[in-house]
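seq as requested:
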Amino acid sequence: MAQPRKSAVRTTRGPEHDHARCASDALARAEQVCQERNVRLTPIRRRVLELIWRSHAPVGAYELLEHLRENGRRAAPPTVYRALEFLRDNGLIHRIESRNAFAGCEHPNAPHTAQYLLCDECGDAIELEIAGLARRIETRAAEMGFQVARQTVEANGLCRRCRPDSSTHAR
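struct tokens:
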């Protein structure tokens, strides 16, 4: 399988998607969530979240570290990992397990288990929240005597922008 390309501001949300507004709204929601939970979105935490929201492609910790250093910040790996831990613990980001990377959470106001569609071509991650899926997995696991500690549902394929024209391919 080919490694996904890094994405700048390419999204799978359709041609009408305004990513600048999307990212701005996400940061505003993050500030609101932190205020409601009485936790601090420090400048470094906010900057890491901004870097994650630069695109819909998951970003790794060392890539974040590189971006912080490019902008003149003195940052060490523990600083980035602590910021990521805070953001994840507060539901502002999700970890994409298969890529060892992080993506912004589109619905940080309520705890949920996200599922992801991952584009193998451009690297974008599309967050899904399929109602009841997490509960169904937990219920079925319990029936089998298994206690779920954490769920990761990731589906790989091609997003609408990277998928070849389906009308030219046999099905």
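The chain has one domain: 19-168.
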